[in-house]
Amino acid sequence: MSKLIRSEGIVLRTRAFRESSKIAIVFTRTSGRIDLLARGARRPGSRFGAALEMGTEASFIYYERENSSLWTLSSADILLSHQTLRETPATLNALARVLKLLYHISQPGVLNSGLYNFTLILLNAMGERESLSALYDLFLWRASALSGYPPCVDQGCLVCGKPDAVNFCIAQGGFLCAAHSQAEEIIRFNPEERKILANLTNVPVSEFDGQIPPILSRLIRDYARYHLHAGVNIIK
Ligand SMILES: [Zn+2]
What distance in angstroms lies between residue 164's CA and the mean position of ligand 1's atoms? Predict the structure, then answer.
């Protein structure tokens, strides 16, 4: 038994398969991460055209088969190609880093429409703006939250509620007052840095000013590595 499915998805990566085909790994809106067999995709004039370029968002129609994790792609219509991101080494590198993390945190059959939507907004911003490194950090911060590890940055000490705590604990995901924190597991921020961190948690991408101080950039990367179980090979 096989059934026909349609879903929007973002191409994470592809690899050659047999003589003329490709396997595309796609992060879909409705089925999580899937592997699609695109028959003949490496032949000139293939009907899949440019829809399988990494970072492209397309509407995919595919056959889902029982007892198989490799599904057969029937058609792919480009919704947003994100072509500009593949045109310079800097944007291509940023795109690759985002897709690599998405590959790492997405799973077959696990839906995450919040992460899907945020990724689309971010890829659009990366094509239009220059602050690629800061946008990547913003992606890490929000992807951590959208994957079930929301940092708690807008309230007092996680233990006693004391306001204006400035010691951030990555493992606990929030601020602790002096009485409830141990020096070896916290990073100290001043109130201004704390404010920026809180803003990064919910600022719309269109209003993001592209500024993240180095100390916060380091924290965001450490936070994402810790909670998303991503090594330095995934988050550089
Ligand atoms: Zn406390």
Answer: 10
